[in-house]
Amino acid sequence: MSEAPMSEAPLSETRYPAHALVGFAHALLMRAGMRADIARDVADVLVTGDLLGHTTHGLALLAGYLGEIEKGTMSKAGAPTIVNERPAGETWDGHRLPGPWLTLRALDTAMGMATTQGTGSVVIRRSHHIGCLAAYLKRATDAGRMALVFCSDPSTRSVAPFGGVSPVFTPNPLAAGIPTSGDPILLDVSASYTTNGLTGRLYDAGKKLPHPWIQDAQGNATDDPAVLFNEPKGTLLPLGGLDAGHKGFALALLVEALTAGLTGFGRADPSEGWGATVFVQVLDPAAFGGRDAFVRQMDALVDTCHDATPRPGGAPVRLPGENGMKRFREQTANGVALHPLILPSLAPWAEKLGIAAPAER
Asked: How many domains does the chain have?
């Protein structure tokens, strides 16, 4: 979810240069023992999440990552093992290395495959958490490629299948970057109505969701995140909710097949703790109808959507990623406005590890 709900706290008025936040995160991760190049990629991906406006999946994750390093459940160095290899596809064992670093390496590999094969796919089992999926897409679209990134976590169950009240899935996000002649179309959605990160943040703040996106243990839709934390626990609803949740359920199954199914590691195996199973695919339009033809079609689609008559009293139609790219440019130029809980969550780590707070703009 890239839009902050109405019940969220406003972003801080204090701004921080993006490079200062990257440097701060990089320093914390290195002081915690992470290899320098891995730490840099993790820091870059997290800050990119905040630049795009994904405030629950940017630096908000860093305290949790540092805790995982301290517990020894996130690897600090090493490399993935190639389990299976074909000209246009590979399967990796990530050995619980940081997900942002692994996913960037997978994206680079898939882009190389697409150069020669037209498409390339890398699936990763036993990755750690990968952060904001949208943070990876622009790297491919800037090169004129289309990228798909899907993710599940076999150790976590918080989303019920349609018609059920028992947790089975994670939100199972799926993202796609689609190049155009202008800004790319950037999709980053979940197979559930909302996410664990957002509901947890609102629960801690004693606030409600803007709509009944979850259900209690009896199957009643509600906007109160407390039902996810009090016994008997409720669940996140699949996208579509009680009326059309079969659609989100179907998407969740697709993500599971492309991640757990293709990697051969998932909910059929013992839990190894918070982490991720990942699917990354890159397609080069030049190998299909041609890059110029692809862009012509996408541009026409974008224009048609923009020209659509808005609902009475509503705003003009916008494409997925438009607000994110607007935020990205504005915050790159003027500094990043963080959610007010982020730096306080990192202050104990900064003190413990002896790292100075990031400089304000």
From this structure: 1
